């Protein structure tokens, strides 16, 4: 797994980095057969309605060109990070389920069509 962590220096401290790495390990352990590349951005923002919040954005690239982007903003950074990775796990499960259903719906090309057989010779009736 490739993991890139970025964002505001004030928002990123050692505990937040450790939490992001732990959540990323959980994601990889949950889906070991998926190649995962993740980029996490943590930023502080001010919302006039909600006040100061920490925004966490997770952009995940999976195999076969699929991508998941999840954003969450909370008062506490730990809550935002947990919510983002929980939503990402849910979305990966959904994508895998859709992929399995799509594969089941496609007929396989390995079964060759049976050749037409001649069952009998045409008979000509005479009167």
From TrEMBL:
SUPFAM superfamilies in the cross-refs: Ribosome binding protein Y (YfiA homologue) (SSF69754)
Keyword Membrane: no
Keyword presence, Ribonucleoprotein: yes
Gene Ontology, cellular component aspect: ribosome
Keyword terms: Ribonucleoprotein, Ribosomal protein
Ranges that cross the membrane: none
Tree of life domain: Bacteria
Pfam families in the record: Ribosomal_S30AE
Protein's name in the database: Sigma 54 modulation protein / S30EA ribosomal protein
